[in-house]
Amino acid sequence: AQSVTQLGSHVSVSEGALVLLRCNYSSSVPPYLFWYVQYPNQGLQLLLKYTSAATLVKGINGFEAEFKKSETSFHLTKPSAHMSDAAEYFCAASFGNEKLTFGTGTRLTIIP
Amino acid sequence: KAGVTQTPRYLIKTRGQQVTLSCSPISGHRSVSWYQQTPGQGLQFLFEYFSETQRNKGNFPGRFSGRQFSNSRSEMNVSTLELGDSALYLCASSLESGGNTGELFFGEGSRLTVL
Predict the structure, then answer these.
(1) Which residue positions in chain B have pLDDT lower than 50?
(2) Residues of B in contact with A36 (CB under 8 A)
(3) Which pLDDT score is estimated for A15?
(4) How many Å apart are CA B112 and CA B115, to the nearest integer?
(5) Strand residues in chain B grouped as ranges (E)
């Protein structure tokens, strides 16, 4: 079955430290991959997307993600965390022409 | 360009009642998807409408229904409300149907509390 798995429902990092949020997928067809962010009391906003072009994808707010087919991963990173990065992050995938499937989310906390 | 608008933002209902939520997509977007978000289950896909036709449906009981109008606005209805229906209901629009064509644009959601 095709699925998206986010490792770690809660991640805490210090301000200025590296942010690493993990996402793995399971699929028999090449996926399209997305990261969304949700701030409190708001809807989801697209951070970045992979659609089979460059494997290293740069998004908004300094985030980037690398598609690694051999590891079936699409981890999200940011070199230096900012207080404003505190939010919930969702990895999502589309397999073939199917609807978007979301992971369970990772809540990111920034420690001052 | 106006974003996705969902109404109402907050509502409280009691068990057994029914509720209708509304979603106005971004102008020009023909696809509207609905998701249920709860702390325990995360984001669960309800259904997708494209040009007034239901294209995809998630694994929810028949109490959950939706429709799309000719102007692409969409409504979802939940009948015979249960406590477990308390959730944030998110609407998302996109230009085309299917997830691989690009991003979904989300509204801020309708938070439903069932007492």
Answers:
(1) none
(2) 106
(3) 97
(4) 10
(5) 5-7, 10-13, 19-24, 31-38, 42-50, 53-57, 64-68, 74-78, 87-94, 105-106, 110-114
Amino acid B27: pLDDT: 93
**Whole-angstrom distance, CA of residue B93 vs CA of residue A104:** 21
- A97 to chain B: closest CA residue: B98
* B104·A32 Cβ contact <8 A: no
Side chain identity at residue A32, one-letter code: Y
Please tell me what DSSP assigns to residue A70: G
3-state SS string for B71-96: CCCEEEEECCCCHHHCEEEEEEEECC
- The list of chain A residues with pLDDT below 50 reads none
Select from A36, A41, A99 the Cβ nearest to the Cβ of B56.
Answer: A99
Classify residue B57 by burial, with Cβ atoms within 10 Å: 0-12, 13-18, 19+.
middle
Mean pLDDT, chain B, integer: 92
Question: Closest chain A residue to B44 measured between Cα atoms?
Answer: A102
Whether B92 sits inside 8 A of A44 (CB atoms) is yes
Say if A41 is an interface residue toward chain B (CB within 8 Å).
yes
Which pLDDT belongs to residue A95?
78
